[in-house]
Design brief:
By secondary structure, the chain is mainly α. The chain has helices spanning 2-21, 47-50, 54-90, 96-127, 130-136; strands at 35-36, 39-40, 141-142, 148-149. It has a domain at 52-140: Four Helix Bundle (Hemerythrin (Met), subunit A). The strands form two sheets. The chain has a two-stranded antiparallel ribbon with strand order 1-2. It has a two-stranded antiparallel ribbon with strand order 3-4.
């Protein structure tokens, strides 16, 4: 009898979990293709404030999907080099020149990532109208803490 209660309880939890992760009524579920840098377009903070047209939304999706695909390998390489640099730094037998060379390699990868990110932002900006670009300055900004804060 206790096993039946456990099975029913597990099914109830699974049912509640599905309900929690279901898309709100009137909105389609988010696929990985519609992500914008890890966030879905319908959750993007600019959506309601910039009044994007359907065409603009599609163009933005395309830009960010292209960006994400372009930097995937770069981010992976960056992560690998960070691990290698950490291992070199914590190895008492490592040569200083090797550590410096690894850090320079890391900096080069970071620079490439920053340049590609800047290109994606410029492509994204070119999709917006002048009025929408003007609205960007008055919008809250995300900081490293992840919280939105207004302009100072």
């Amino acid at each position: 009898m206790k096993k039946w209660y456990a099975v029913l309880f597990a099914l109830l939890l699974i049912g509640l979990g599905v309900a929690v992760y279901a898309a709100p009524p009137g909105q389609e579920a988010v696929s990985s293709d519609s992500n914008m840098g890890g966030r879905a377009l319908h959750h993007h903070p600019f959506r309601g404030r910039l009044d994007l047209s359907q065409e603009q939304k599609q163009q933005m999706r395309a830009v960010w999907n292209r960006y994400r695909n372009d930097v995937h390998d770069l981010r992976y390489n960056l992560m690998e080099k960070r691990i290698e640099a950490r291992k070199l730094f914590t190895d008492p037998k490592a040569d200083q020149a090797a550590i410096v060379a690894k850090e320079r390699e890391l900096n080069g990868l970071r620079q490439k990532l920053m340049e590609r990110t800047m290109q994606a932002k410029l492509e994204w900006r070119s999709i917006l109208t002048p009025e929408q670009i003007a609205k960007l300055d008055s919008m809250p900004r995300r900081h490293a803490t992840g919280r939105c804060q207004g302009m100072m």
